[in-house]
Amino acid sequence: MTLDIPLADDPHVTQPKSTAHILPDAQTVTSVRHWTDGLFSFRVTRPASLRFRSGEFVMIGLLGDNGKPILRAYSIASPNWDEELEFYSIKVPDGPLTSKLQHIRPGDQIILRPKPVGTLVLDALLPGKRLWFLATGTGIAPFASLMRDPETFERYEQVIMMHTCRTKAELEYGRELVENLRHDPLLSEIHGDDFTDRLVYYPTTTREESPFMGRITDNLASGKVFADLGLPAMNPAEDRAMVCGSLAFNVDVKAVLESFGLHEGANSEPREFVVEKAFVGEGV
Ligand SMILES: Cc1cc2nc3c(=O)[nH]c(=O)nc-3n(C[C@H](O)[C@H](O)[C@H](O)COP(=O)(O)OP(=O)(O)OC[C@H]3O[C@@H](n4cnc5c(N)ncnc54)[C@H](O)[C@@H]3O)c2cc1C
Ligand SMILES: NC(=O)c1ccc[n+]([C@@H]2O[C@H](COP(=O)([O-])OP(=O)(O)OC[C@H]3O[C@@H](n4cnc5c(N)ncnc54)[C@H](OP(=O)(O)O)[C@@H]3O)[C@@H](O)[C@H]2O)c1
To answer: What top-level class of enzyme does the UniProt entry assign (predicted)?
Structure first.
């Protein structure tokens, strides 16, 4: 499927009478990978002028049947040094955007509004020793960006990626990403031989048997994750956290972090943790 979105600055494009269909923000899909029936990732060309901080999100979309853009917020999953942009997406069966987006192929075009924003950025946290990434489902996307950004490891001694999904298959995108990172010789050169110990991965499932099980909230509140990893309980002097998941998860995990004495911060007021929704609504 190719949208043939006319580029506003292309001299070969005849300007249509109505300006409604001129979309200056077209990018080309370079690869697509389907992970499960409900999850896929894809990469697109990056606008030369796009600068973003790892962890931010942009609006992306496709043209609807009525010729109007259907745009949704998407975390950029690639780090800010990457030549392309990567996204990790849910497939909502009747979702206005993802019912179409799940069919994209290399060579197709999508719309990408180049105005990155978001709270899950390193600058929104105070310096600390350990940085915890807490994600459910597609909420791992901003952390896929931050884990691949060398600055994350310049600022923190240890990064702990806690990712929880219902099934093992839903963890696979994150598992493969972490494994590739750990075996990247360039990163070991930059971050030292102990890089494997500095990037800690703690995946759990809640509806299928796997080596580690349970909700992130329960594993933090019970102290299980600290015991499993040989770490002290979270404390405001050493630990920082970023949260990205469903609204219910965000609310519950925020209460757990506050019980450890951490406070929510923002770009304008850096504190010990920051939160962002992985999607709006109650879930599909
Ligand atoms: C800041 C922000 C960042 C986001 N980043 C991503 C991202 O990186 N990847 C991604 O897949 N989505 C992301 N989303 C959600 C995304 O904006 C869309 O909602 C999603 O693409 C579905 O679009 P849709 O038009 O098909 O369905 P919508 O009409 O948008 O949603 C339909 C239903 O599906 C549920 N839903 C939507 N997205 C998800 C999801 N990711 N996981 C579980 N249930 C969901 C909604 O709660 C709603 O009930 C983000 C949302 C926000 C607010
Ligand atoms: N029918 C299916 O097979 C199927 C499969 C996947 C998704 N879905 C639908 O898709 C929607 C989105 O799915 P999703 O997997 O991205 O999101 P989700 O339902 O929010 O679950 C993602 C993970 O987060 C956990 N979780 C949910 N709420 C939490 C909370 N308040 N505190 C701590 N952990 C919490 C879940 O554990 P729990 O398992 O303990 O809830 C699960 O492991 C869901 O609402 C669901 O209806 C359906």
So the answer is: oxidoreductase
Task: Report domain extents, the chain.
Answer: 23-117, 122-277
3-state secondary structure of 69: strand
Strand 84-90 versus strand 273-277 pairing type: unpaired
Mutate which of 136, 168, 202, 277 for ligand 2? The one with the most ligand atoms within 8 Å of its CB, which is 136
pLDDT value of residue 12: 40
Distance 165 CA to ligand 2 centre (A): 7
> Which of 39, 89, 166 is the pocket-test mutation for ligand 2 (most atoms within 8 Å of CB)?
166
Cα separation of 5 and 216, whole Å? 42
What is the pTM for the complete model shown? 0.92
Give the pLDDT confidence of 214-270 residue by residue, as tens digits.
999 999 999 999 999 999 999 999 999 999 999 999 999 999 999 999 999 999 999
Q: How far is the CA of 228 from the centre of ligand 1 (A)?
A: 32
Higher pLDDT among residues 128 and 197, named by residue? 128
Does residue 177 sit in helix, strand or coil?
helix
| Largest distance between two CA atoms of the chain | 66
Query: Are 23-117 and 122-277 equal in CATH topology?
Result: no
Which tens digit of pLDDT belongs to each residue from 12-23? 433 333 334 456
Choosing among 3.40.50.300, 3.40.50.80, 3.90.1150.10, 3.30.200.20, the CATH entry for 122-277 is 3.40.50.80
Superfamily (CATH) of domain 23-117: Translation factors (2.40.30.10)
